[in-house]
Structures are given as structure tokens and as C-alpha cells.
DNA sequence: CTTCCACAATGAGGATTTTCATAGTGCAAA
DNA sequence: TTTGCACTATGAAAATCCTCATTGTGGAAG
């Protein structure tokens, strides 16, 4: 799961991040609200851990912003204060859970799982681009309501493009995302070419446009123009 | 391996830390030279990643300090500048390698491995268990010097066992490690059974014992007894 | 001790992924 | 403009992975 951690204490942040990475989550960090805001406006997250005691402003505002940009994300508020006010206000604004520092990492983990469970139990969750849409739960891919069937790698690759729409992805980055570390870059990228080819073919045959732009010598970009 | 990362850019620091944790390293962080200096005087590290462009002073000084306190550590200098001066000075002072930003994580990884290899004085990097040994670089698997050929998944699975020898691994943990989040647990675990079966067969046919113990209802354990 | 049932093992076949061979294309330099 | 070369595309074959059907097994309950 993709998790954004908003926290200025570097020690805490590291501990949490390292722990969550070991739990097989993908972590990104923001050490203040401004950076958090930028990330939220660009990426999709499953969980956002939000310290509301940061120096540069009121974190409760950020919750609102998250609710607008990133509906899918679960929010867990972290606070040093134990003030009931903050707690109530945070939960009112749409936070899914609330923790006070200090906390056990295992506690954090179980809360994350609980929030994910709650989130996933209800309605469907799609990410899309023009006529293309992917249901992130059922993993169904549709072109104008016409369902196409992708294999796992194809699905992962298309998903990676959609999560990073309008952003150039190098072949190296794609390889690392789809195959992890144990891929030998000294090899060639035939496998990427092949999967790209298959995705393009399947989308085209269902009447979709080819939004996968090849940037010669750079990589690929999923974009309108 | 224990790694200290000295870097003030939180994005880079996180990316590096997360990546290295996944590679089974233990990471600690310092966002400036003062903190780095404190940590160095207290702890032992195997590798120190050192950004010499930090705001609070001259990083080359820190190299000297490391050399005095922490002789065992390998030093990899990171720099935004491409200046030959810095490079030479850094290497002169005893850094083991030098990288310029930006860099690929995979590149960092291979440099870390190279430095560790050099430090450990002897050539290859193996992890083993009785008559079984895996070279983590060449990915060769040997049973009493008899080489066997494993497929990727088989290799990942055996590696996972060897890294966690004597530890019980649930099927869920194995699934998550080998296939990530996008595996449907509601399914069955046939694929694990199949790969286990193949590994056992290959090891046996090369004359190795079957150290993969089945713990009924619990999972599996790679152990002698 | 026997029965039963969930868990585990196994082999074969189908699906997916990767490799390979070959063809096509964009960019830079002549 | 032409040429050369590295990069990209493509289809088919090979290797690997996953699914399925079937068989075997451990341990709890009776």
C-alpha cells in the first residue's frame, strides 16, 4: 500500500518509514505541510499519516485538502498533544483514526490495517484517464465501459502509468517498479517493449486511444498530448 | 549491514533509506554533520553514505573523523557537484567510492555491494546453510559445489528462506514477500506449493537434504532440526 | 484406534512472462 | 539530404509461472 508520512521529526519519521517498508508498504515523506500538499495534489495514497503539530501551519487544513484531492486515502492523525479538542476536530474533519505520541510501531500497524479494511469494505475505487478506467479493487480495466482483460504484468504496468500520468517514466524506473531490485539492467528492455506492445494492442482493439507516448531516449509518458 | 546516511534532502534520504531497508540493511540517518558526528562517535557502521554538500560545514572533515572513530566503515561520498577537486579530495581522504547526484538506487546498491566486498577482503558474497550456498551476486546456487539452476521465483523463495533461517514463515508472509500486495489471499496457495515442490526436487536431485520443514497449519521453516 | 477434515504435496496442462530474431524509426552528424 | 546508429516495435518461440484435479497426510474429535 502507498503511504504518505507527514512528520518533521526525522528520527520518528525514519523509524516509521523503515518499519512500514519492511511491512511491504511504499512510503513517501513530507516534512512540512507545503510538501505534503504538493504530493497530495499529484499522487494517490492509500494511507496518510499526518502529524498535526508541524511548525508551518495548521494541519487540520490539510485534512480538508486531502479530502478534496485524494478521496481514496485513509487519514491517521498523529499528535503530541492529548487534547480532546484536536482529537474531535480531527475526526470531525474526516480523519479515520487518531494516535498520540509516543506510540508503538505495532500499534500503528494494526491501526493502518484497520483503516485499510474499513476503506476497502465499501464501494469501488477507480482511477482513470479519459475513456480508460481501472477499478483498483476488482482490477477491472474498461475502455468506454468496454471491459478488457489484462495479465498481471500488463495491469501493473498500466496502473503504474495511470498513477503517474503526465510524468515521464524511464525504462529503468519501470523495470524497478515491476520487477524489483533483482532485475539485471545489463540485460535489455525487451520485456518492457513486449508488455507495452500488448497493452497498446489491447487498448486499441477495445477502441481506446494510445496515450502511452514514447519519448525517444527518455522513456514513456501516459498523457493526452 | 548497518548503514548511516548523512543527507539533508529528505526526499533523497527517504528513498535511499527505504530502498536499503528492503535490501535487508539497517539504516540510521543524520541530517547534518553535527548529528552524524555524534552517531559516529557512538555506533559502528558498515557503510556511511555521506553527502558532502551539507549546509553546516565541510564534509571532508567528517571523513577524517570517521577514519579515526570508525575504521571498519566503508565511506561512499555523494555530491551534487561534479567537480574533480571534490572527487579527488574525497577519495584521497579515504572515501571508498564517489557518486554524483542524481543517481539510480540500483547504482547505489551495486556500489555498496562492491565496497562491502572490498572491505570484507574476500571475493564473493554468499549466504549459506550447511551444504547449500547462494552467491548473492551471481545468484548461483550450489549444493556441495554442485550447481543447480533455479528459476527466478524459486530463487527468491529459497533466498527468503535462507535470510530467515530457523524462523517460521507463514504462507501469507511468503506470498506477500514474493508477490507483493496485489496477491489475492482469498485464492489458495497452490503456487507456493508448486514452487516449494520444485525447489525441494531440485535440491534433492543435487544431493542436498530437505531443510524446508513443513509446520502443519503454521507455515514453513528452513532449519536443521 | 478410527474417522474425518482441513492442510499439504504432486503432476500435468494452460496461461503468462521472457527471450530471441528481425524489422522499423528518430535523431545527430556528415 | 543522406547515412549511421542507437533506440524502439513486433511477432513468435521458449521458459517460467499458475491453476486445476487428484492424491496424500497430520492431528483433532469421537
Structure explained in plain terms:
The structure is a homodimer of 225-residue chains. Chain A contains eight helices and twelve strands. In chain A, α2 (33-42) runs parallel beside α3 (59-69) and α6 packs across α8 (190-205). In chain A, 44% of the residues lie in helices and 22% in strands. With 225 residues, chain A is of the alpha/beta class. Chain A has two domains: 2-121, Rossmann fold (3-Layer(aba) Sandwich), CATH 3.40.50.2300; 126-222, Arc Repressor Mutant, subunit A (Orthogonal Bundle). In chain A, the strands form three sheets. Chain A has a five-stranded parallel beta sheet with strand order 2-1-3-4-5, with helices on both faces. In chain A, strands 6-7-8-9 form a four-stranded antiparallel beta sheet, with helices on one face. A three-stranded antiparallel beta sheet of chain A has the order 10-12-11. The first copy, chain A, has helices spanning 10-22, 33-42, 59-69, 84-93, 105-121, 152-163, 171-179, 190-205, and strands at residues 2-6, 26-30, 47-51, 74-79, 97-100, 126-129, 132-135, 141-143, 146-148, 168-169, 212-215, 219-222. The model of chain A has no long low-confidence stretch (mean pLDDT 82). The radius of gyration of chain A is 19 Å and the shape is globular. In chain A, α4 links the parallel β4 and β5 (97-100). The interface between A and B is medium-sized, with 23 and 25 residues. The structure holds a DNA duplex (30 and 30 nucleotides).
